[in-house]
Amino acid sequence: MLHRFSKVVVASTVLLILAGSLVTSHDAGLSVPDWPTTYGWNMFTFPPSMWVANIFYEHGHRLIASTVGFLTIILAIWLWLADPRPWLRWFGVAALGAVIAQGLLGGLTVLFFLPAAVSTAHAGLAEVFFCMTVAIALFTSPRWIAGYGTAKAVPYDAARAVDDVTLRRLATATTALIFLQMLIGAAMRHTGAGLAIPDFPWMFGHVVPDHWNGRIAVHFTHRVGALIVTLGIVTLSAYVWSHHRGRRELTRPATLIVALVATQVTLGALTVLTRRDVWINSLHVVCGALVLTTSLVLTLRSWRAKFAPAEVRLKPDATRTRDVVGNASVRGVRLQADRRGQA
């Protein structure tokens, strides 16, 4: 149940990212000029009849954010009470801290009239929080706990997990590059540089812009970053398929991330060609977040061999019991918890 609930939090966070991107795409960030109230009303009692025009997007974003925050509180408490791994308990607390900080940054963007630095930090922290929720869902999954063994329902065996230094380095570097690219994209959105270069694939009719200013530089950096990230993802996926073809926990995200980055590049191009169509622009943000977290999942799985066994394992415990007749003593097997390992 804990794993399933963590996936609900992940899905809710995807919805929150979409809602936030719609706010930016509609330029609705100041459609509700006060915070934490909404036109003087308590956020949760603001009349639906007043959810009109851009107020709908900003107020809806706040309500979804509050819901995600509430779900994160439940998740953190549940982890603390039910999961035996101390590091994961504290990781849940850190996720709760991140969503609280995210809410405060969201409020500051309104109170200080959308400063680019604060808005970019707000977008960046949203990606960090999303990564944390995905990581928690992964850490609580049965296959992670089992160490991705070839057989089901078996105790963790380090020999079953992939231990490939090159894969770990390549996956970690790719995830870091994607996150950096997300920050550049956030800076581009919040400095109004999304159409600073109005054509695609050329740039003012050239391979490289023939004139420059700050916004053009940010937009150009984002395009170059997209090329570098795409090459990194293709390299990572090719490495997984060439060296670990039989490991589905690696090949699945390696295949998915190639499809996602192809979709992301297409959405980025369409964003320019359609002059920042609201839905294409917003889906571009969501797809970018999915590229990041897919790379994160692949990265964490490549590091699984470096994690200690799960804190609670099942080990066979032979005991003697009597048969139903009560005469003969027979050998039985019972599973009992072994708490010697530390995750």
Write the layout of secondary structure elements.
Blueprint: H1 2-25, H2 53-82, H3 86-111, H4 116-139, H5 142-146, H6 165-190, H7 214-243, H8 248-273, H9 278-302, E1 313-322, E2 329-338
Helix pairs in contact: 1-2, 1-4, 1-9, 2-3, 3-4, 4-6, 4-9, 6-7, 6-9, 7-8, 8-9
How would you describe the overall organization of this protein?
There is one protein chain. The protein has 343 residues and is mainly alpha-helical. The protein has 2 domains: 1-140; 154-308. The chain is built from 9 helices and 2 strands, in the order αααααααααββ. Strand 1 (313-322) and strand 2 form a beta hairpin. Helix 1 (2-25) packs antiparallel against helix 4 (116-139). It is flat, with a radius of gyration of 24 Å. The two termini are 20 Å apart. The model is unreliable at 150-158 and 310-343 (pLDDT under 50).
